[in-house]
């Protein structure tokens, strides 16, 4: 809001100067440009929600590996701090760089026998990420936006070498991601019509799909066993730029 007010104040001053020097036609052209830039100022952040399939994998060092399928739901958000893509509202061309955060809740415990007489179990609970993402249009004027990103993660991880020992703790580590987003304005007319009926701006709404890999390093169980945990995640969601 403050940024928009400052922009409008500067715009009025510029319009006054242009009216005096170049006439009404040039002033009208400048005002149209400023209106588009104001629209851009309101499209610098995004928030999204996604569902995910996860595949936690724990290496019970010198004993064997246990993995399996689980799931997660995530709330994602970002702030564009370099955005040549949105020179004007609704224009898709150029490059975007954003700081990203997410909060996820994992569900499900994966369990697999390890060849030393234990049941290896892994539960990924709540986890949070923070990182940087680069996006760029791959087709035409931004029909598809591939992106890559990386950052840090902190996660609540429970590991069991059942029935002998376990450990549940917050673990920190890193992640990387590759994915793509598709502006709603570029998908089928049926989906666009549904969005318009709900008052959703198609130019500011994007569907996205991504692969993320997480590594939270080594974890010592309460009996002294060493483990190393990582997981893959494939997620699908929708986000709104505002």
List the helices and strands and how they pair.
Blueprint (H helix, E strand, L loop, with lengths): L1 H21 L1 H18 L3 E16 L3 E4 L2 E14 L12 E12 L1 E6 L3 E18 L9 E18 L2 E19 L5 H9 L7 E16 L5 E16 L1
Antiparallel strand pairs: 1-2, 1-3, 1-10, 3-4, 4-6, 5-6, 6-7, 7-8, 8-9, 9-10
Cα(first) to Cα(last) distance is 12 Å
Unreliable stretches, pLDDT < 50, 5 or more residues?
Answer: 1-20, 85-92, 189-202
Number of helices: 3
For the sheet with most strands, the description reads: 8 strands, antiparallel, barrel
Q: Give the radius of gyration.
A: 24 Å
What string, H for helix and E for strand, traces the elements in order?
HHEEEEEEEEHEE
| Beta strand % | over 45%
Q: Which outline best applies? A: elongated
Widest β-sheet, arrangement of strands: 1-3-4-6-7-8-9-10
Structural class: alpha+beta
Mean pLDDT: 77
Q: Could you estimate the helical fraction of the residues in percent?
A: 10-25%
Q: Count the beta strands.
A: 10
């Amino acid at each position: 809001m403050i940024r928009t007010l400052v922009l409008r104040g500067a715009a009025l001053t510029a319009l006054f100067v242009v009216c005096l020097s170049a006439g009404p036609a040039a002033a009208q052209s400048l005002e149209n440009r400023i209106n588009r830039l104001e629209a851009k100022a309101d499209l610098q952040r995004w928030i999204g929600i996604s569902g995910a399939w996860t595949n936690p994998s724990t290496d019970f060092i010198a004993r064997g590996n246990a993995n399996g399928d689980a799931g997660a739901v995530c709330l994602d958000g970002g702030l564009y701090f370099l955005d040549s893509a949105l020179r004007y509202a609704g224009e898709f061309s150029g490059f975007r760089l954003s700081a990203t955060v997410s909060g996820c809740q994992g569900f499900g415990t994966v369990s697999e026998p390890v060849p030393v007489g234990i049941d290896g179990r892994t539960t990924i609970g709540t986890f949070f990420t923070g990182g940087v993402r680069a996006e760029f249009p791959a087709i035409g004027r931004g029909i598809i936006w591939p992106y890559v990103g990386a950052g840090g993660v902190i996660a609540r991880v429970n590991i069991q070498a059942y029935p002998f020992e376990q450990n549940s703790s917050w673990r920190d580590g890193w992640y990387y991601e590759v994915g793509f987003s598709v502006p709603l304005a570029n998908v089928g007319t049926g989906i666009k019509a549904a969005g318009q009926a709900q008052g959703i701006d198609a130019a500011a709404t994007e569907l996205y799909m991504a692969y993320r890999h997480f590594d939270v390093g080594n974890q010592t169980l309460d009996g002294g066993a060493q483990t190393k945990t990582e997981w893959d995640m494939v997620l699908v969601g929708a986000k709104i730029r505002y």
